[in-house]
């Protein structure tokens, strides 16, 4: 008769196994919470578009009207109510902004609270996603600290209701949200006819720059810094020379377009490199062309997705 065999372990082995499992839990927890800012942050705009998010506001021809709006992050003493400019039910809280398609709003925001805050404009009526590129001031993963400030701008491409919010998760729900009411475009526009060459020449420098985490791309300076995506204004028929250096770590290319979403249709021969043959880090190039018909155009990085991440500026022909 065969005896049954029983395999036993010792208290020492059991203790070692428990210690190993506890160590794994501690290390895993430390890694998870060290990346907390990453877990709560939003994807870059180009990632959202690839996932199917609709474009919230394609830029329209500008009317020339600019609205300046100062906004302060305000908190109640118990931190249960968060608002802009004044506490809820007080005059001036979360002011409503009224504008028309093509008007521009410049936001000057300052953190007058004790917590961390960030800013952006969205068409989503809830949550903290769908932030329109170019309207951001800081972010949930890199917010404004108490006393810090920043500037951004918003140009509505279509009618409707938009919202300016604190993009730190939960702060919109606690009250940091205001409405932007966009009405129809006003009458007016350009003749659509290019002028004869004027003999006037302009030289502009537009260098490609990137944030350290590559989530924000821009020309000359990052959002909130002096010289960020400068507006260019010339007359129809003027000669324009653009020089661009790739000061980033990715590949970039340049062009002027009529629609910033259509990076394949560069106009006036304004290309510097191309998406299929871009400027490598440290490389530079230039282009010279004649400005065409009056209107609002855009200079962009023509590498797909880079304009969505911020490499887009206004090119105004008068």
Distance between the termini: 104 Å
Rg is 25 Å
CATH class of the largest domain: Mainly Beta
Question: Largest sheet, order of strands side by side?
Answer: 2-1-4-6
Helical stretch tally = 3
| Low-confidence residue ranges | 40-60, 187-191
- What's the helix-strand series? HHHEEEEEEEEEEEEEEEEE
Biggest sheet: strands, sense, closure? Answer: 4 strands, mixed
Domain Blue (type 1) copper: 230-318
InterPro entries: BlueCu_1, BlueCu_1_BS, Cu-binding_ET, Cu-oxidase-like_N, Cu_oxidase_CS, Cupredoxin
GO molecular function, one term: electron transfer activity
Domain Plastocyanin-like: 94-185
Structure in a nutshell:
This protein is mainly beta and 318 residues long.
Protein model, in words:
With 318 residues, the protein is mostly beta strands. It has 2 domains: 66-183, Cupredoxins -  blue copper proteins (Immunoglobulin-like, Sandwich); 201-317, Cupredoxins -  blue copper proteins (Immunoglobulin-like, Sandwich), CATH 2.60.40.420. It has 3 helices and 17 strands. The protein has helices spanning 11-34, 36-40, 45-50, and strands at 66-75, 82-84, 97-100, 104-111, 119-122, 149-155, 160-166, 177-183, 201-205, 208-210, 217-219, 232-234, 239-245, 254-257, 284-290, 295-301, 312-317. The strands form 5 sheets. It has a 4-stranded mixed β-sheet with strand order 2-1-4-6, with no helix packed on it. It has a 4-stranded mixed β-sheet with strand order 3-8-7-5, with no helix packed on it. It has a 4-stranded mixed β-sheet with strand order 12-17-16-14, with no helix packed on it. The termini are far apart. The chain crosses the membrane at residues 20-39.
């Amino acid at each position: 008769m065969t005896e049954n065999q029983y395999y036993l372990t010792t208290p020492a082995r059991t203790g070692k196994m428990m210690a190993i499992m506890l160590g794994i839990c501690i290390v895993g927890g430390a890694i998870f919470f060290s990346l907390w800012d990453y877990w709560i942050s939003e994807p870059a705009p180009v990632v959202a578009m690839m996932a199917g998010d609709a474009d919230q506001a394609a830029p329209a021809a500008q009317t020339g009207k600019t609205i300046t709006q100062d906004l302060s992050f305000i908190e109640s003493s118990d931190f249960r109510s968060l608002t802009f400019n004044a506490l809820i039910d007080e005059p001036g809280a979360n002011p409503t902004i009224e504008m028309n398609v093509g008007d521009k709003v410049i936001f000057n925001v300052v953190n007058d609270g004790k917590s961390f805050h960030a800013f952006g404009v969205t068409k989503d009526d809830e949550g903290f996603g769908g932030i329109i590129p170019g309207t951001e001031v800081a972010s949930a993963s890199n917010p404004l600290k108490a006393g810090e400030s920043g500037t951004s701008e918003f140009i509505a491409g279509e009618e409707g209701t938009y919202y300016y919010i604190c993009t730190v998760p939960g702060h919109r729900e606690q009250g940091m949200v205001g409405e932007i009411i966009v009405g129809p475009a006003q009458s007016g526009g350009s003749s659509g006819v290019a002028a004869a060459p004027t003999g006037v020449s302009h030289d502009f420098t537009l260098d490609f720059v990137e944030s350290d985490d590559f989530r924000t791309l821009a020309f000359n300076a990052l959002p909130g810094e002096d010289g960020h995506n400068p507006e260019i204004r010339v007359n129809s028929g003027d000669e324009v020379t653009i020089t661009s250096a790739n000061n980033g770590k990715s590949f970039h290319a340049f062009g002027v377009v009529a629609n910033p979403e259509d990076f394949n249709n560069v106009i006036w021969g304004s290309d510097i490199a191309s998406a299929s043959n871009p400027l490598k880090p440290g490389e530079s190039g230039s282009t010279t062309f004649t400005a065409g018909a009056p209107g609002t155009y855009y200079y962009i990085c023509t590498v797909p997705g880079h304009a969505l991440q911020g490499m887009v500026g206004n090119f105004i022909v008068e």
